[in-house]
Amino acid sequence: MTTVGFVGLGNIGKPMALRLAASDLDLVVFDVAPGPVDELVAASAKAAASVAELAAAADVVCVMVRDDDQVRDVLGQVLGVAGDRQTVVIHSTVAPTTPAELEDTAARHGIKVVDAPVSGGPMGAAEGTLAIMVGGSEEAYAAARPALEAMGSKVVHAGPIGSGTRMKLARNLLHFVAFTAATEAQRLAEASGLDVKVLGEVVRHTDAITGGPGAIMWRDTAAPIAPDDFWHGVFTHVADLGEKDLRFATALADELGVDVPLADLALLRLREGLGL
């Protein structure tokens, strides 16, 4: 049976580890805070007194710590402990170059590494519905896969090392640009005398139906669309509607003195961005 070690029982790490504890995998955990460790022990995990002790017991080591420096520190404590049977899974969102650097370091000790950042937040972690984006060799991915599938309902092997991190950064670019656009919409609604909270309810309701920004992400390329392509007609319709509504919205914003730079930029770039 595969033994999984989990380092970092924070806001997302703890519910991820609890999903592992509920699976048929053996689990050993470590965190500097005793409270989350006690909770995992109550859920059937074993506690390690150090990262090195955890590494000595684990076939797969999952790392969900704060930043690149902490990831490097954990990996440094893992190396040389368990020999070449081990795979280290980096769940933390790190710089794009960090996974390949970690893989090079670990390879000198015979250890495999995958980068496997997650999307879905604490709720997805608790429900086991995370999307997990994985970069690494086929061998390393195969070793990590049982643990990953215990924690996420959408596990994607994105490509070689670093691919998971690059996919997570692309996903989060959309996430936080959309958040910024939402703040423009809130300001426009508020200046129009509308209930901003109710607007949020409408947005969440309709995004659940339409898919939100992901509703346009069906093509396998971002290249321009040929006129005889099926998607040319679909996205022409999207662009026509979008430009009409963006013109109305930006005109309203000008009238009310609300600054909406992302909406102005969207009006300029929507059609080209869709591939038209």
Count of runs of 4 or more consecutive helical residues: 11
The CATH superfamily title of the largest domain: NAD(P)-binding Rossmann-like Domain
Instruction: Supply Rg.
Output: 23 Å
- CATH hierarchy, class of the largest domain: Alpha Beta
Please give the largest β-sheet.
Answer: 6 strands, parallel
Strand content: 5-15%
Helicity level: 40-55%
Q: What's the order of the H and E elements? A: EHEHEHEHEHEEHEHEHHHH
Number of strands: 9
Written overview of the protein:
This protein is 55% helix and 14% strand. Strand 2, helix 2 and strand 3 form a beta-alpha-beta unit. It has 2 domains: 3-161, Rossmann fold (3-Layer(aba) Sandwich), CATH 3.40.50.720; 167-273, N-(1-d-carboxylethyl)-l-norvaline Dehydrogenase, domain 2 (Orthogonal Bundle). Helix 1 packs parallel to helix 6 and helix 10 runs antiparallel to helix 11 (261-273). The protein has helices at residues 13-21, 34-42, 51-57, 68-78, 98-107, 121-127, 138-151, 163-191, 196-210, 230-256, 261-273, and strands at residues 3-7, 26-30, 46-47, 60-63, 87-90, 112-115, 118-119, 130-135, 152-159. It contains 11 helices and 9 strands. It is elongated. The strands form 2 sheets. Strands 3-2-1-4-5-6 form a 6-stranded parallel sheet, with helices on both faces. A 3-stranded mixed sheet has the order 7-8-9. With 276 residues, the protein is an alpha/beta fold. The termini are far apart.
